[in-house]
Amino acid sequence: MVDIIKKIVVLIGVPFAFFAQTVGDWLETGQISGDT
């Protein structure tokens, strides 16, 4: 049961972390280009 939960957390957490990092970088570049 614990192994299944760990697998689910990894399958959801890894793509979410990558997505969040990509969105964060996109927002930063968008704000910088928008201010200038």
Give a structural overview.
- This protein is an all-alpha fold and 36 residues long.
- The protein is 94% helix and 0% strand.
- The chain is rod-shaped and about 50 Å long.
Rg is 16 Å
Helix content estimate: over 70%
Q: What is the molecular shape?
A: rod-shaped
Low-confidence stretches: none
State the separation between the terminal residues, measured CA to CA: 52 Å
**Given the structure, what is the number of helices?**
1
Secondary-structure content class: mainly alpha
Sketch the topology as an H/E string, one letter per element: H
Averaged pLDDT, please?
Answer: 88
Number of strands: 0
- Give the biggest sheet: none
Strand content: under 5%
Features of the shown structure:
mainly alpha, 36 residues, single chain
Gist?
Helices cover 94% and strands 0% of the residues.
Question: Could you give the topology of this structure?
Answer:
Elements: H1 2-35
